[in-house]
Structure formats: C-alpha cells, structure tokens
Amino acid sequence: MSNIKQMIIDGQRVAAKTGRTYALHNPANGTLLAQISDGDGDDVEVAIASAHKALGIWSKIPAKQRGILMKKAEHLLQERAVDIARLITLENGKPFEEAQQEVLFSSGYLSWFAEEGRRAYGDWIPSPYPHKRLLTLVKPVGVVAAITPWNFPANMITRKIAPAIAAGCTVVLKPADTTPLTALALGEIFIEAGIPAGVFNIVTAKDPAPISEAFFRYPEIVRMITFTGSVRVGKLLAQKAAERVMRVDLELGGNAPVIVYDDADFEKAVDNVLAIKFLRVGGESCICANRIYVQASIYDKFIAAFSKKVQQLKVGDGFMSGAQIGPLITQVALQRVAALVDETKQRGGCIVTGGHVLTSVPYQQGNFYTPTVIADCQDDWPIAQQEIFGPVACFYKFSNIEEVLARANHSVYGLAAYVFSQDMAKIIRSIESLEYGFIGVNDGQGYTHEIPVGGLKESGIGREGGKQGLWSYLEVQSAVINLE
Description:
The chain is an alpha/beta fold. 38% of the residues lie in helices and 21% in strands. It has two domains: 4-252 and 459-480, Aldehyde Dehydrogenase, Chain A, domain 1, CATH 3.40.605; 256-448, Aldehyde Dehydrogenase, Chain A, domain 2, CATH 3.40.309.10.
C-alpha cells in the first residue's frame, strides 16, 4: 500500500500544490502504509472555494432529496464495512472486530441525520397584532471547517459530516494525520453516492497549523468550525473563532469518573467497567474510564476480580485472532503513558498487574503497553487530573455518596461519567449531581445515535448526535409581515 494517497477537493483526487507527501506507518509494526499528500493553506483555499460554490447548489436541494443521497452513502458504507475496517486497523491499530463495529455504527449517523434533516421546521407564530404575521425559518450555517481525531477515524467524521450536509451545509475536513486513509475512503463513498462535488472536501496534512490558520482567512465564507481533540487546541480555535464571530462546536478532553457503589450488581459492574476502560481503542478515548471510584466495602474484592480479567485480555496486532487491545497510536503516546505510570508508581500507586512497555516478540516493532491496573491512587496525582489515553485503570476508594460525587466533580473536565448501583434513589441523586454531559448508568457501551453527546466545563461547547446535533448547523431567521 506504499502508493501516494491524494486529497479530495471538488469531487476529484488531487495532490498537494507543493507536491509534498508524508509517510504513514502501521502503529502495530512500523511498516509503511502509504505516502499521504501533505497539504497546506493554499490547498485549503481551493477546498473552501469549492465548498462555497457547492453551497449554492446543495443548500437549495430539498432536505428529502439530500437524505436520499445520504442513505445511499450509508448503504455503500455498510457494504464496504470490512474494507474500511481494515484501513482503520492498519492505520489506527484497534482490533479488526472493533473497527468493523465502528464502521457500522458510523453509518448509522447518515440515516439518522438524513431523517432529522426533514424535520428542521420553522414556525408560524401567533401574532399579538391582527395586521401582522410572524414566522421563523431555518437555513444552513454555510461552509463548515471540520477537524477530526484519530481514535475513531470513521465515527468522528460521520458524526460531524452527516448533520452538516443534512442541514444543507458544505464541508472542508482536515482528518488526523495518522488516520487519513479512512477519511479518504469515506470521501470516495460520498462521491459514488451522488453527493455533488464540493459538498465534502478532504485536505490531508502532517502539520495541522497551516490548515487551521487557513480556515480563519475567510470568515465571510467559512461560518463554523467543528473540532474534536485536545483542550489546548480547542481553546486556540475558540479564540480565533471569537475574533471573527464564527460559530464553534468543540468536543475536548475528558477525565471520566466511574462510581461503583457497594449495592451494584458486582459481576456486571466488573464487566462493564472493563469494557469502558479497555475495549474502546485500548483506553485511547475521551469517554473511557479514567478514575474508577469503588466503595470501600467492596474495594479489594472488586480490584481482585477486575485484575483477573485484565490479565486475560489479549494484546496484539489488530488482525490477530482474538485481539482485544491493539497498539497505542504513536511512540510518543506510548512513552507518555509509560512515564505517567512510572510517576504514579513512585508516588505510591500499587501496580496490581501490568505496568510496562511490551518489547518481546511479536511486540518489539509496535507501540504496545501491557494492560495495567493501579490501586490506591490519590485525587491530587497527575494521573488523576489528566487524560490517561492508554490501557491503564486507576482505582480510588470512597466511603459515601456525598464524598464520591464531590470528588468526581473535582475536575476541569465534564465529558462522560458512569454510575453502577441498583438503588434508584442513589442513581437519580448521582445523575443530578454529576457535572458531565453524558452519564452511563449500569452500562459500559457508551452513547447511541439518538442522544446528544458533548461536554460541560472545559470538555467542550455544543452537542453532537440526537436531534440537537442537527441544530448546530442551522441558523434561525425571523420575519414580521405587515399586511396593511
């Protein structure tokens, strides 16, 4: 696969204007996958012009017809789920079965928003004056700049692109430099489905800075930026957008607490917490369990049962039969996780299992870290205050509901949280008290298409998914008609 993969602009495969490329490698073994066109601001300008031209066409197509084309794209995506999942595993490293599940889940956003696009209603409003009529109508925001991460290279794209184009917007996408192949495959599907040229443009690049700078050069054309990634970058984008009064939609970092009360269904809680922590890109997810709070009366028992199952997890190349944990995305990510665990151990954290880089055959050429459990962690340690983004589960002991809710909320993040209990009063109190945009109760599977997800506090602005996800890409106009 060591050929050159070009960008998609105005419905065509195009090379970067400079002719530059960068090398894309498999995180499991370091092999070269492809040379990727390395775009810059000039390429973005061409893509913006293409999106602007297409906006005049796409926004006037009835929502029902837009939805029909989106459903064609959904069917093509489902038909090619195996092929696209293979690309995800090659460039991202996650297990092939998990990658297939991601592709199928991603396709669901196309049908969901195809249907929601038909329900973007205005209103005829009762007037307080007999000679006046009042109404509202909705219109697409315009050209949207989108920046997506590498951990869910299909899902993060369709979760943004589907509502945008359903609303009548056009898009210029900058996918993560480590997972461009998935994005380009999706772009080809949109073209084949009959979605007009320029509606969905993809600019690939190693360095994101020139790309994001170009997004802000024409605020009269690019009216919105949607980003999923780090808090640091999200704040920079929000500052630039504020200067130009552009709409922003941001899903940023997370530091998800998991609360396991002593009345929880023990076995189900163990299995679900394991899934939340380890079975979503091996812990490289914003909504993964980051701080696992277990009530004191079951603390030791829970860690023992949990650790036993962690030791049974199968680590390896995503194409290996039965693989559950793949490599971290880069060597930098691997070294960061290793350093964080070493620092936690020095502070007094108890390594129950794992705690080291995997360097033996067949791991020596990849970015593999052993699934790790650390007991007796403290809230003021760095590992408790930042995203771990790796296969490391940290446990914290608590005594009562008031204590644990206060500790769980003591974070600048507010993306996801999880609660395990069979006491409905305790569940409701926890939901009402937790300062997080998404809360899973006795469930480790995460969100669905039908509900909105997004963060509170420094975890973001706006919502994706659900009916609310469409309205991020719509403007509301009001009109007063004087009949006299």
